[in-house]
Please model this.
Amino acid sequence: MRRLILACALAGAVVAAPLAAVASKAAPAAAAKGKLATTNLSIGGMTCQGCASGIQRQVLKVNGVKTAKLDHVKKSGSFEYDPKVCKPADILAAVKKSGYTASLAK
Model:
């Protein structure tokens, strides 16, 4: 299975299933109570699904970030986070740490 996923990724195919599992890092009851905030970013330099996966992994390491959904075609990302634990600047910093540019979407 790993070889198939790697082969697809190397061939430029979209590998959605593994990303969906990471992106849906379940937000506990806080999401149901509306305690999560959402921020949308414009991300520069993200050209493929591999780029999006790397950014997603880095952002999900930020304490308080619950979901990270990226779209390399639109060069954007939507992130749900606990505002009591982190802030949009922390998410921006994680994207930049991944080697990409980012700004709050307009």
Q: What stands out?
A: The helical segments are 2-10, 16-23, 29-32, 49-60, 88-97. The longest helix spans residues 49-60. The domain at 2-104 is CATH 3.30.70.100 (Alpha-Beta Plaits).
